[in-house]
């Protein structure tokens, strides 16, 4: 859709090269008003993508989002211009853009609105959103979420927990950060604190897929046999022993082995525990998430077995 010039009310026409060169020399972070909107946002986007951040001084989410956008603008080092529009001070521009709530972030390229999002997104999601249109610098640092995930992958749950604690405190409205914190606490060996975080989520978010996944991992840890109980199963070949071994594998994060064992138990003794193997498979899928490769693979195998 075309971008409208707030001064004339008409669609932008292509600028000449001297005007776009002037826009290209602008700083990577620019405050927008009536005097520079056309040059920076409209004409400037013909050469360099412009990320227009519409905000207001009274908007707390805006205050959380703006530092993230500024950080990314500096990191991208001119690959896009961050244009900041205070809608209270420049209501005419906001009206022309159709701004109804803030924060409202619009990506403008070649004088056109390419994409937009409203509200506050985690830094990782903003990076992923930007990456669809603008190439990130090769030496771009990891986002806090990526740092936390790398720490978890390396077995350093304490570092991950610290990062998610900071993110949760800085962005209290981001429920995902609190769910990630619960997951890190669980990985760190603090199931009681993890449960307290999950129980403290808003009621409408407690049953979200991501929260269900962490709660499922928490429950698997409680249900799985201890090392001593597992040793006592040595030599047993009955369905209960196979089930408990599979449960321990899942609780330990050895998901593939646990899923495989549950699927084999289902083939061997579908009636065990009132179809307990299949029900537990579904719980593991919940814990992993619908898009996890193991969920996709074993859901397909489960379907093939049943039908």
From TrEMBL:
One Pfam family in the UniProt entry: TPR_19
Matches recorded under InterPro entries: Thioredoxin-like_sf, Thioredoxin_CS, Thioredoxin_domain, TPR-like_helical_dom_sf
Superkingdom of origin: Bacteria
KW Transport (keyword) present: yes
GO molecular function: protein-disulfide reductase activity
GO biological process: response to stress
GO CC field: cytoplasm
CDD domains xrefs: ybbN
Domain (Thioredoxin) ranges: 17-135
Bias (Polar residues) ranges: 7-20
Cell inner membrane recorded as keyword: no
Keywords linked to the UniProt accession: Disulfide bond, Electron transport, Redox-active center, Transport
Region called Disordered, residue ranges: 1-20
Protein name: Thioredoxin
């Amino acid at each position: 859709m075309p971008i409208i010039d707030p001064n004339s009310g008409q669609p932008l026409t292509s600028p000449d090269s001297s005007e776009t060169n002037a826009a290209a020399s602008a700083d990577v972070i620019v405050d927008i008003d009536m005097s520079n909107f056309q040059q920076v946002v409209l004409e400037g986007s013909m050469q360099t993508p412009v990320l227009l951040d519409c905000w207001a001084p009274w908007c707390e989410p805006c205050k959380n989002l703006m530092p993230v956008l500024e950080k990314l603008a500096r990191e991208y080092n001119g690959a896009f211009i961050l244009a900041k529009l205070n809608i209270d001070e420049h209501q005419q521009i906001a009206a022309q853009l159709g701004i109804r709530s803030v924060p409202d972030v619009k990506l403008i390229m070649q004088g056109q609105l390419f994409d937009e999002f409203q509200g506050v997104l985690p830094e990782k999601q903003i990076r992923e959103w930007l990456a669809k249109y603008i190439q990130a610098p090769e030496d771009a640092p990891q986002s806090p979420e990526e740092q936390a995930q790398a720490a978890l992958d390396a077995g350093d749950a304490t570092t991950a927990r610290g990062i998610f604690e900071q993110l949760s405190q800085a962005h209290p409205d981001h429920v995902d950060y609190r769910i990630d914190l619960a997951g890190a606490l669980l990985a760190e060996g603090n199931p009681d604190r993890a449960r307290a975080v999950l129980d403290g989520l808003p009621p409408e978010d407690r049953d979200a897929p991501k929260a269900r996944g962490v709660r499922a991992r928490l429950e698997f840890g409680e249900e799985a046999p201890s090392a001593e109980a597992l040793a006592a199963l040595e030599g047993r070949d009955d369905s209960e022993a196979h089930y408990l071994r599979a449960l321990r594998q899942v609780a330990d994060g050895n998901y593939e082995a646990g899923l495989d064992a549950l699927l084999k138990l289902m083939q061997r003794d579908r009636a065990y525990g009132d179809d307990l193997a299949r029900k537990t498979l579904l719980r593991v899928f919940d814990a992993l998430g619908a898009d996890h490769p193991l969920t996709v693979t074993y859901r397909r195998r489960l379907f093939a077995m049943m039908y």
